[in-house]
């Protein structure tokens, strides 16, 4: 059994050179994994996540997962926000050296427990999360104007994949970020790499609140990729009378604790209200999620809105549900909200797919005797 090692550099190279066809194949692989999670009751075979906080502030997250053919665990290390002082005899006079904020590694075994791969999971995690958001974006009729809150890895991959998978549709991408400099650097890097081929206008938002309101109201797609503890925009902006009937796709993946909320809870309350401002022939009273249990445990805005499991539908069920014409129409034109907190099988599905892609392209390290 071949054992594969993929470094962060190798994974970045694989992902940055994806063709639209390969990207769609990866989307299909992820969709199938999430369908198995929901429809084949794979959720009952998923171990609980565990986090450990050391006295020095170091946080370690352990995220195990199983599938019928694989067992894996992703380990994420979050360094202390302020480095511990160096010992008296250490070089550097006790100043210490700041450590990287986050590192992660994914180990994958086959169904017998035989290790088959180790992957640096930093880029992989951002990619698989963004790819999850794309599963519903692929159904949207209007994706011309895209608004992105954030300028980190998640924001980058949401934009890369939206343009790669919907090259015929995305015309303009606007980044909203507290650090305009960081957003400008991301825009410059994407342009330098030829993302969008010059046919997509990428800009950094620089106006005030009134300008942001107009931007939110006029956009087709909103990607929320920040660990915000306050809503990124008030619900009223998209609930005003003149806005009713105007569909949008909102994907929120940045918040992951109960004290975080990217989306105004009042907006979520309205989305699931059968007689609310979004009700009509092109509306379903659901919030689409990757995992109902995960979101009930970790999605602050959903909990703050008082949403119950019956208000949510897992994305793994959508292929089955959209056979009904009204659901398909809602996915194409309605007001759709997708919330993700991450599911371990997403890492395994994409990790194994990247291992196979690396073998095809002859990159990475491959050991025949491990």
Automatic annotation (TrEMBL):
Superkingdom, natural source: Eukaryota
Pfam families: OCD_Mu_crystall
GO cellular component, one term: cytoplasm
Family, similarity comment: Belongs to the ornithine cyclodeaminase/mu-crystallin family.
Protein name: Ornithine cyclodeaminase
Species of provenance: Pyrenophora teres f. teres
